[in-house]
């Protein structure tokens, strides 16, 4: 059946220069490199410099994605930034990036779904592109989680880092079911679990930014089941399977969650793209960061089937299946 499909034209990412290792963290809180690696798979994370904001990270990632796609900034008419750590309460970080890119047409807005943000933003951009209302979109996941961490809480401060990733999508008319593009997306939320992973502040409640709080065991307990739920839906919608996909690119939160999810779904370990050891949990940025690594090192090739998934506070969770 013919129609419009959102095709990934380029990918880019950025990590701040400052690297914070597990050994350095062990000097600040009661932990160790061995403990962190065994329970999370994380070896280091990147921390934004003083005066380096979420928009700065997202802007660099966006420019790299545009260069990879071979597009000029003026070619873009939709920008969606997935972030839980915006520069300001308003205007949207997307609008700041839009201005820095010199784009004066179309729309730019932020989307907040915590660690699921990039999948939610991808689904939102795909929906807008398929209506014909926009031609090309920048989908960005950018975070400075270091700004909302309690650095005395060893249960959370070891997990998160800063970074950004961006993807350029283009609306393409197609009549080939085997063509490139986003094939299906599936999004879920369940606010009953909001107290398990949240920030204890906000403009309306405390008038402060607050700090991230998490019930780690509860999050882990729900994660694998929720992730496999939306992936099963993606397979059912497309007729694809664990055997037919080429790459599984999950949210990079915890190596044990990634491994358990792949095992439950029957996805071979060699198909799983894992970068959590390099940058920790960068929330909405983690999936495009991992995609960019796989694209740059040559693993990811045009025409391959790529499965994305994420879960975040709220709870939110979602999947996307696309042909690269």
Q: Ends: how far apart? A: 19 Å
**Count of discrete domains:** 2
Oligomer: single chain
Within CATH, the superfamily of the largest domain carries the name Thiolase/Chalcone synthase
Briefly note the CATH topology name of the largest domain: Peroxisomal Thiolase, Chain A, domain 1
Question: What is the number of helical segments per DSSP (H or I, 4+ residues)?
Answer: 10
Query: Rough shape?
Result: globular
* CATH architecture classification of the largest domain: 3-Layer(aba) Sandwich
Helix content: 25-40%
Strand-pairing-aware structural class: alpha/beta
Strand order of the largest sheet: 1-7-6-4-5
Compute the average pLDDT: 96
- How much of the sequence lies in strands comes to 25-35%
The major beta sheet can be summarized as:
5 strands, mixed
Can you count the beta strands?
Answer: 13
Characterization of the model:
The chain is α/β, with parallel strands linked by helices and 324 residues long. It is globular. A five-stranded mixed β-sheet has the order 1-7-6-4-5, sandwiched between helices. It has two domains: 3-174, Thiolase/Chalcone synthase (Peroxisomal Thiolase, Chain A, domain 1), CATH 3.40.47; 181-276 and 289-323, Thiolase/Chalcone synthase (Peroxisomal Thiolase, Chain A, domain 1). Helix 4 links the parallel strand 4 (78-82) and strand 5 (107-111). The model has no long low-confidence stretch (mean pLDDT 96). Helix content is 32%, strand content 27%.
């Amino acid at each position: 059946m013919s129609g419009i499909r959102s095709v990934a034209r380029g990918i880019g990412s950025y990590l701040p220069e400052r690297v914070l290792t597990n050994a350095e963290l062990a000097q600040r809180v009661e932990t160790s490199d061995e403990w962190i690696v065994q329970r999370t798979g994380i070896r280091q994370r990147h921390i934004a410099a003083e005066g380096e904001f979420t928009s700065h990270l997202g802007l660099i990632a966006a420019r790299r994605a545009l260069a990879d796609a071979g597009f000029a900034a003026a070619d873009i008419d939709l920008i969606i930034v997935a972030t839980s750590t915006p520069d300001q309460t308003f205007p949207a970080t997307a609008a700041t990036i839009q201005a820095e890119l010199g784009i004066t047409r179309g729309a730019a807005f932020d989307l907040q779904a915590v660690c699921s943000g990039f999948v939610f933003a991808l689904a939102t951009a795909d929906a807008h592109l398929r209506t014909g209302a926009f031609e090309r979109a920048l989908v960005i996941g950018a975070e400075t989680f270091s700004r909302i961490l309690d650095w005395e809480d060893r249960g959370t401060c070891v997990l998160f880092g800063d970074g950004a990733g961006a993807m350029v999508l283009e609306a393409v008319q197609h009549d080939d079911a085997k063509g490139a593009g986003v094939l299906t997306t599936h999004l879920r939320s369940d606010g009953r679990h909001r107290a398990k992973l949240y920030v204890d502040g906000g403009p309306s409640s405390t008038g402060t930014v607050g700090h991230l709080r998490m019930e780690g065991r509860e999050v882990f307990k729900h994660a694998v089941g929720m992730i496999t739920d939306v992936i099963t839906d993606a397979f059912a919608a497309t007729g694809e399977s664990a055997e037919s996909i080429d790459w599984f690119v999950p949210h990079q939160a915890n190596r044990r969650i990634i491994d358990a999810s792949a095992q439950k779904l029957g996805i071979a370990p060699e198909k799983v793209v894992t970068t959590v050891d390099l940058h920790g949990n960068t929330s909405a940025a983690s999936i495009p960061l991992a995609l960019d690594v796989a694209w740059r090192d040559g693993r990811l090739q045009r025409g391959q089937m790529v499965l994305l998934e994420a879960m975040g506070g709220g709870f939110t969770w979602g999947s996307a299946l696309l042909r690269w």
